[in-house]
């Protein structure tokens, strides 16, 4: 079993200690280092090249959102999961545009943190249920006309994809990692990885979370696209 290598950043010492304890209890996760601000987190990512950077959204100096943008730009092999007590749309929108692949609430079940890291490490997308519900609610809350307009735009965008790519996008929308998508479609994970890369490029989205939202808006998935795959 491959171990998920994690760098974590939070300005509160006790919170970092708690997160380290939760993560260290899972034999499939190794904490490579801790930071108290986003700038230090970026340095740690550059030093260790972990699989995931787990970042608090608000820290003194360079916060998690700024660090997310830097990490995804400079170290594309490291995924970012945002840890937050906030579910405001502005934070989610900026983190999404910055390339974050997951969002976990500090006030949530510790098992969500572990599940979220495993999902993202496998190439999936993860949002805590409360954040997912808020985001999906917001997608449909601007009125029928607004939602229909977004849906039409999303359907037009996915017309750029091949039939196979649309099938893969629908499964991305269900939050499935590459190995599960491969199993569902009867193809090898390497082929799924190629399809995912093509989908992100053709749709001009930065990561699987943005792709999942687009899949939801286009009607490829009926339920929240950020459920843990397990």
From TrEMBL:
4-aspartylphosphate carried by residues: 56
CDD domains: LuxR_C_like (cd06170), REC_NarL-like (cd17535)
Keywords: DNA-binding, Phosphoprotein, Transcription, Transcription regulation
Biological processes annotated in GO: phosphorelay signal transduction system; regulation of DNA-templated transcription
GO MF assignments: DNA binding
Pfam families registered for this protein in UniProt: GerE, Response_reg
SMART domains reported for this sequence: HTH_LUXR, REC
Residues covered by the Response regulatory domain: 5-121
Location of the HTH luxR-type domain: 154-219
InterPro entries on file: CheY-like_superfamily, NreC/VraR/RcsB-like_REC, Sig_transdc_resp-reg_C-effctor, Sig_transdc_resp-reg_receiver, Tscrpt_reg_LuxR_C, WalR-like
Name of this chain's protein: Transcriptional regulatory protein DegU
Gene field: degU11
